[in-house]
Write a structure and sequence with these properties.
Length: 244
């Protein structure tokens, strides 16, 4: 075996890759930056499931994949929107204004969404021999969304371990699960995340409303850091005095 062959085999052995569950939002974009910083080659998986802003989210996820030079795959499914019971997928339900101190499950909760999305992402990861799967869930999510709790990801890791091939090893990475939105934004700014290519608003595709939960937590994060969120808003309330 010649020296170049040995070097090529060593390089392949040390390469690692990760699926990014890419919503088009700032959390998953920052998770992608963290994964890239850790040396992973990236595979973006974006799912359109009938959410109100799916066109804008797809546009942003696609743009982020280009920025990170990542493989990109989009899956389209309508089963979550057909099930309903969420203001994100049911036009008959209004998206509520932000209640940042509430610990109630909000109307925007899509029943068991993360289990559905993670299942598709694990399939993609196993099919492409990826080593990890990154999701951008964080602490301000799991206060209202039960499928963002640390215990959920720990349990899902067990499902992955027993439900894939014996030789398959996929780590579920939720690097922000104990972080605030402000922590995420701070790290993203340090890693030059293209936040102008992200979307968080639950209501509208342009401009962002500025008053739904997703907009409020996002704006608050930038405001606490003294930075300007680069996307357009219909309103930019001051959220710096609100509790996170």
């Amino acid at each position: 075996m010649n020296e170049s062959t040995t070097e090529n085999e060593t390089e392949r052995a040390t390469e690692k890759s990760a699926v990014i569950l890419a919503s088009g939002g700032m959390d998953s974009a920052t998770a992608a930056a963290v994964a890239a910083d850790r040396g992973y080659d990236l595979h973006f998986l974006h799912t359109s499931y009938g959410q109100r802003t799916e066109t804008k989210e797809y546009e942003c996820a696609r743009a982020q994949a280009d920025y990170f030079d990542a493989e990109f795959r989009r899956l389209e499914t309508d089963h979550l929107s057909k099930i309903g019971a969420s203001s994100l997928t049911d036009e008959g339900l209004d998206v509520a204004d932000a209640e940042m101190e509430s610990e109630e499950v909000p109307s925007s909760y899509v029943p068991f969404r993360n289990a559905n999305l993670l299942s598709m992402a694990v399939s993609y990861a196993e099919a492409t021999d990826c080593d990890a799967l990154f999701i951008g869930a964080h602490s301000e999510d799991f206060s209202g969304y039960p499928d963002c709790r640390p215990e959920f990801f720990e349990a899902f890791q067990q499902v992955v371990d027993v439900g894939t091939k014996d030789e398959t090893s996929i780590a579920i990475e939720a690097p922000f699960v104990e972080w605030s939105k402000t922590d995420i934004a701070e790290t993203g700014l340090e890693l030059d995340v293209p936040y102008d290519r992200t979307w968080s608003c639950y209501r509208d595709e342009a401009p962002a409303c500025g008053t739904c939960d997703a907009c409020a937590f996002r704006l608050q994060a930038f405001q606490r850091l003294g930075a300007r969120d680069p996307i357009d808003y219909a309103e930019r309330p001051d959220y710096t005095d609100e509790s996170a």
